[in-house]
Prior knowledge:
Four copies of one chain form a homotetramer.
Chain A: E1 11-13, H1 22-28, H2 39-54, H3 69-78, E2 86-91, H4 94-105, E3 109-114, H5 123-132, E4 138-142, E5 146-147, E6 152-153, H6 156-163, H7 172-180, H8 190-199, H9 209-225, H10 227-247, E7 251-252, E8 264-268, H11 275-286, E9 288-290, E10 301-305, H12 312-328, H13 337-346
Parallel strand pairs in A: 1-9, 2-3, 2-4
Antiparallel strand pairs in A: 5-6, 7-8, 8-10
Helix pairs in contact in A: 1-9, 2-9, 5-6, 9-10, 10-13, 11-12, 12-13
Amino acid sequence: MDYVYGPGKNHLFVPGPVNIPEPVLRAMNRNNEDYRSPAIPAMTKNLLEDVKKIFKTSAGTPFLIPTTGTGAWESALTNTLSPGDRTVSFLIGQFSLLWIDQQQRLNFNVDVVESEWGQGANLDILAEKLAADHSHTIKAICIVHNETATGVTNNLATVRKLLGLGIVCASPKALEASKSAKSVRVFFDWNDYLKFYKLGTFWPYTPSIQLLYGLRAALDLIFEEGLGNVIARHTRMGKATRLAVEAWGLKNCTQKEEWYSDTVTAVLVPPYIDSAEIVKRAWKRYNMSLGLGLNKVAGKVFRIGHLGNLNELQLLGCLAGVEMILKDVGYPVKLGSGVAAACAYLQNNIPMIPSRI
Amino acid sequence: MDYVYGPGKNHLFVPGPVNIPEPVLRAMNRNNEDYRSPAIPAMTKNLLEDVKKIFKTSAGTPFLIPTTGTGAWESALTNTLSPGDRTVSFLIGQFSLLWIDQQQRLNFNVDVVESEWGQGANLDILAEKLAADHSHTIKAICIVHNETATGVTNNLATVRKLLGLGIVCASPKALEASKSAKSVRVFFDWNDYLKFYKLGTFWPYTPSIQLLYGLRAALDLIFEEGLGNVIARHTRMGKATRLAVEAWGLKNCTQKEEWYSDTVTAVLVPPYIDSAEIVKRAWKRYNMSLGLGLNKVAGKVFRIGHLGNLNELQLLGCLAGVEMILKDVGYPVKLGSGVAAACAYLQNNIPMIPSRI
Amino acid sequence: MDYVYGPGKNHLFVPGPVNIPEPVLRAMNRNNEDYRSPAIPAMTKNLLEDVKKIFKTSAGTPFLIPTTGTGAWESALTNTLSPGDRTVSFLIGQFSLLWIDQQQRLNFNVDVVESEWGQGANLDILAEKLAADHSHTIKAICIVHNETATGVTNNLATVRKLLGLGIVCASPKALEASKSAKSVRVFFDWNDYLKFYKLGTFWPYTPSIQLLYGLRAALDLIFEEGLGNVIARHTRMGKATRLAVEAWGLKNCTQKEEWYSDTVTAVLVPPYIDSAEIVKRAWKRYNMSLGLGLNKVAGKVFRIGHLGNLNELQLLGCLAGVEMILKDVGYPVKLGSGVAAACAYLQNNIPMIPSRI
Amino acid sequence: MDYVYGPGKNHLFVPGPVNIPEPVLRAMNRNNEDYRSPAIPAMTKNLLEDVKKIFKTSAGTPFLIPTTGTGAWESALTNTLSPGDRTVSFLIGQFSLLWIDQQQRLNFNVDVVESEWGQGANLDILAEKLAADHSHTIKAICIVHNETATGVTNNLATVRKLLGLGIVCASPKALEASKSAKSVRVFFDWNDYLKFYKLGTFWPYTPSIQLLYGLRAALDLIFEEGLGNVIARHTRMGKATRLAVEAWGLKNCTQKEEWYSDTVTAVLVPPYIDSAEIVKRAWKRYNMSLGLGLNKVAGKVFRIGHLGNLNELQLLGCLAGVEMILKDVGYPVKLGSGVAAACAYLQNNIPMIPSRI
C-alpha cells in the first residue's frame, strides 16, 4: 500500500524528481543480473554512444555515475580542478548557493558573483573579470544552467562566446584536465571509469542494473519522440505556464524574459499570502505536488515544474488546480483565466503526435 | 515499447476500460501461484466477504467469474432463467441493445420497452405491465443501471419500489432460482462455484492469480478511501462535467436530470460537427481517449467517462482538452469557460484528503 | 505484501498455472487503454496472424476469448455442435472427466470410452466405432491431448489418420459447422468475433488490454527462442524427469512410453505413503508447489509439471527437493540419485543458448 | 525485450548484485514523488529506526546515502579520518585490495598487512601492532568483513576483543570523529545528513523514491522472516555448498574453517582447468551466473554466491548445474554427488516455513 493514499493520480509538478514514463518504469521492473556477463558491457557500450547523442557531442566522454545530481557536480569539479584553484561562481538562487558551498568545501578559491534572486548570472562582471585576468588565474567558470529555485535559465551561449569553448559531458579538454587535477576523489574518479572503458568491461564497481535498463528505455523514447520535439514540448509548456501566470495577475520570480526557464516557473505571490500554504493545500486537497519557495524566496514563491514525462493536458489540469488553490488562500483570481490563456496559445501550437497521424 | 507512443500520460476518459490505481497494477505484477495451495482459498474467502461489503449485502452470494461484463450478464441470466421465460427489457441505448440481443439469443421471451436514446427506462409502462400480469408470466425485469452509450442512469430504487425486492450480487432469491433454471450453462454455472465454496477450495477451475491480488488491492483502496467517499467523488465529477458542458453551450444527450449519470456524460454536438472527429483529434493531438457515439447516436455524441481511479485535476485537464478540440473542429467555444464552471463548483466541494490532514 | 511469505523463489511445478516469463509480466504491467483507438485493432491484427504461426496453420481462424481453458472448451463445443449431437469422448483422467461432464450438460449425446487412469485413449475402439457408423451419427471426437491428471499424452496423429482431417484452432470445416450449430451461446459465440474481424475493429466486447500486451510479449519470446526449440526444451525436461523417477525406483502413472507427456509427469507412490503429504511438505518446508493426485488417483500420485517458462536447472532444483521430501515421508530414496540420472541425460543434450554463443 | 534472452529464470549466483525479492521489485515499481511532502520524511523516520534494528544498535546513526558500496566505503573513511592518519589495513583478496587503494588515494597513511589470498586477516600481527602503538598513531583498523573474492569471512568479534569497541553503522564514537575529520567531502558528508535529520526533513538532496519504498519492503520481509532466520538460512546454504564442493573432490579457496563465509564460496579448480571457462559455460549453456576468479586467483577459482533472496532448492539447482559444467570442462565429477551431500545435510536442517505450518 502507498504511504499516504489519495485517489487518482498524484499530480507531480515539482522541478524534480520528475514524472517517469511508464515504459521506463516497466524496463526497471526486473531482477538483478551479473554485470560481468557479456550482456551488460554490450549494453553499456550502446548506452554511452546514445548518451552522447543527447549531449549532441561526438568528441565528449560520458560517465554514468551511480549517484544523484549533487554527486555529479562533485564529480565534475574534483576531476578537473585542484585545491586552491580559482573559480568564478554565480550566486542567483538556492541551487547555485549549494553548488558554491560545495566548491568552497572542496577547497577551491571561489570568486562569488551575486545577483538578486530572480535575475540571471551577471555576464558583464564575468567579462570584466576575464579581461582583468592577465595571469590566467581563473580555472573554471561555474554557472548553473537552470536555477530551479527562481526559474532562471542562464544563457550559456553568451558565456561560451566570452570564453570561446564548450563544455558538455566531459569535453576532450576536461578529460585532459582530469589527468592533472589534484582534488582527492575515488568514487567519483573518472580515471577509474576510463580504465574500464578501455578494457571493454566498462564498470569500475557495481552499477544499478535497473537504472541501465531504465536509461535504455528512456533513450529509446527520446529518439522515438525526437530530441528536438522533446525540447519544443518543454518550450511550449513553459510558455503556456507563463501565460497563465500573467492571466492570474501574478509576477514571475524570473525578472527578465531572456532568463525564462522551459522547465520550471517560480511564481511570486502577493505579500498577504504565504506561498507555503499554497503548496500545502495542493498536496492536502488536490493530490498535487508543487515546489516550495526556498531560502530567500521562502514564503514568497511557489514553483511549477513543467518537465519530464508531461504533456499539455496534464499541465492544464495543474493550472486549473492552481487557480482553485489561489482562491482557497484568498487571492482574487478569475477561475478559468489562466487555463484560457494557456489554451489559446496551446490550441494553435500543439502538433499532431507523429506516430498517430 | 508501447504500440503507439505519445509523450506524457494517456488521458483515458472512456467509460471503460478505466484507469487502474497504481497499487492495483503493482499487486498484479506477479508470477503465477498454485491455486490449490492453502494460500489462495484463504485469500478468496476474505475477498468474497469483502466484495459483499461493496455490494452492501450480507445475505448475497458473490461470484468472481473470470470473464468480462458480457460474460457476467450471461451468467446472471442463465443461472436464474429458463428458455422461454418472459423478461421485460428496456432498450435505451447501445448497451441495453446488446443485452437484449443476448437475452433473445439465449431463447428468453423478451418483452422490449423502447425509449428514445437519451431517455431512461419508461417505468410507467413497467408499472402497467406488472399490473396486467395476473398470471405472473414476467420472470425477470432487465434494466441496465447505467447506460454508458447515452450517459443515462436508471432509478433502480423506483424499480424496486414497483417490485418490492432487491437484486444485488446473487440474492437468496436468485440463488433459489438457479436450482431450477433450465438454461444450458457450464462455464458460467453458479452451482459449480457453490460446490467448491462448500468444500472451502472455492475454485471450480483455474482463477487468474493476478486478478485475485488486484482485487485484494482494489478493495483495500476502496476501504481506505471509504466507499461513501468513492461514490461522492464520482458524483462530484459528474456534476462538474455537466457544468462544463452547459458552459460550452452544448446539450447533454441524457434528457432529464433524474437520469444523469455519475460515471459518464454523453455530449451532443451541433449537426455541422461529426463527433467522431472530436474523438479522433483527442487521440491524435492531445493523447486523450474519449468515448465515441455508438449506433443511433454515432457522429452525434462524444462521451466523457469520469469513473475509476480519477481525481478532479485529471478531469479538469480533460475538460481543458475538450475545449481546445471543440475549437479545433470549428465550434465557437469560449476557451476556459467549461473549466471555470467546473472549478467554481469543485473549489467549494472537494474535501481535504483524510489521510493528509 | 504477499499472502503467505516464504524466502526465495516459489518453485512452481504444477501443470498449471505455469511460470510466466518476466518480459511478459513487464508487458502486462500497464494501465488500461481505449480498445477502440486505432492502436488496439492494429495490434490485434498482428496478434491473430502470429497466433496462427503457433498453431502452424494458415487456413485456421484463431479466437482470443477472454476466458480460461474451461471456457475455451465450451466455446469449441457450442460453436460446432447442436444439442443431441453424438460425440465420442475418451475418459482417461480428471480433466477428460470434467470435459465429458461439460459435454453432457451442454446436452450432447456423449458416447464415453473409458480407459484405466494412466492409459491413453483406446484408439482401437474408436476405429471400431467409426467403422460401424454407417449413417454418420458421430459429429465429433473429443479427446484430451494431454491429460494432466495422469501425465498421459494421446497420439493425435493416429486419431487424425483414422479420420483423415486436421482440427487446429478453428479449421475452415469447424467455421463452417459454426454456421449451423444450434447450441445456445452468446459470450462464446465465434460469429460475433467474425463480424468484428470483418469490420477491422476485432473486438465484440472489451478485451483485457493487459493480456493483449502479455500475449504480444509471449509470442515475441517464442519466436526469439524458436517454436521448435521451445518444444525440444519441453521434451528434454519430460525425459529428464522420467529418468529421475526411474532412478528413485518409482513408477510413472502413465502406463506406456507412447503416452508419456512432455509437460507433466504423474508419479505413483508406494501404498504406505499418502501423496498429498508430499505436496503438503513441498509447500510447507521447501517453498515448492507440486500437483496433487486428483479423484481416482488422489493420494496415489503426485505430479511434476515441467512446462512454461522453465529451464533445466530449475527442474533439477525441483527434483532435488522431491528427493528430500520422499525421504521426509519415509521412502528410502538414495539422495542425489534422481538428479544424477537427469543430469547424465541433460549434460549431453542441453544446447548452447543461441543468443549467447 | 531483454538484452540477451534465455528461457526460464536466470540463475543468479554471483556474490552481488543479488536476487531481489518480488515484493521489493513490486514496491519499487512506481512513479516519483515529491520528497519534500510530509509523506517522505515520515517514511524516512521509520526507515532509519528499522535500519538500526538490522544493525542491532540503538545508539548508532544510520545513513542512507544514494550510492553503491564503493561510495559507502568512501563515506565511512572520509567522515572519520583526516589526511595523513594511519590506518592498519588487511590485504586478503580483490575487495580488500580495492579498499586499500581507496584509502591510499584518500591520502591516509596505510599500514598494509598482507596474507595469502584464501586466508583471513592476520590478527596476530594486528595484536603486535596495537601493542607497539604507544603513541596511538593507529586511527583506524580497516578490515573487510567478508572478502567475496576468496570467500573469506574475518572474525570481527576477535578484532573487537583486541580493540574493546564496536563499530556498527555510525557509532557515537564515529559520529564524534566526524566533527573533527578533515577529509574533504561534500556528497558523502554525514554532517549534511545530520543537519536535515535535526530539521525532520531528513534529506540534504534528492533521494531515490523507488529505493526508499524498496527498502521499506525489504525491511518488512526481513522482519516477517525474522532476522535470526535470515542469518540461519544463509549459514545453512553456506554449509550445504561447502559439503557439495567437498563431495566433488574440490578445494575451497578459503583455507580454514574459521574463515568460511555464509554468503559466498570460492572453489579452486585443478590446474588443467581455466575457471573462467566454467563461468562462461554456466552463462552460455545453463542460463546461470557464477562469479569469476579475480586478480591473483583469476582462472583458478570460480565463486558461488549464496546470499540474498535465495532458498535451498534454488541452490540445489545451481549445484546440479555446476556438476554438469564440471563434466563439460573435463573434470571427472560423479554427477549427483554434490547435490546428494548437500541434500543429506539440508533434509535434516531446513525448518518448516513458519507462516505455512
